Amino acid sequence: MEKIKINDKDIEYTVVRSSRKTIGLEVSPGKGLLIRAPKRVSRKRIKEVIREKAPWILKKLEEVKEIKPEPEPLEYVTGEKIPYLGNYYNILINEVQGFKQTEVVFDFDNFLITINNDIKKEERRQIIKNALEAWYRKQAGLVINERINIFKDKIGREPVLVRIKKQKKRWGSCSSKGNLNFNWKLIMAPMSVLDYLVVHELAHLVHPNHSKDYWNLVELTMADYQDSKQWLKINGNLLTI
What is the pLDDT of residue 129? Predict the structure, then answer.
């Protein structure tokens, strides 16, 4: 990691070299400033680019200070907490002799997970994680479709197909065919945030862009959408199991 002084501030940055042709800058929580550079570009040129982009870099570094980092991986043991619709609930592990298929039951207070007590420790964690993800995905499908039915008349459009997907970087998307895709992890967020993503994607059925008309439609449908948009930006990393 290297350092450069900008406006009397020591800014640390990491350079990643590759066969790319241009210099790219990224600012992200936990990683700070990342410079993607061609293999042969000089350190002097990299510093020149950083100084040229200083206002943008400083602004982004301030913004990412608010963004919460991803939590440590779970061990999936009794007492740990996981999110669902904006609240956190305890995990309760119930080990049963000869139990064949891992089961997840949510009683609105706890996640009761029943599992065979003969499963080896190194396999147990992944099995529980897979069972929880399957449960979350099912609930996401049910709830998101319910919310679409509420907002589709306000937007004036209905999707051709709704898919719940496993996506690393996107919360939702709208295809040119009128299909809507949603990240299953949204079911962990507060309902208002989930509603914002539903409205966001439904509005793309009318305006396939992020134009002024698009955002006007989102605001007309959900006046306080900015609050949910900001919540997701700050807390999105916490929506994980």
Answer: 96
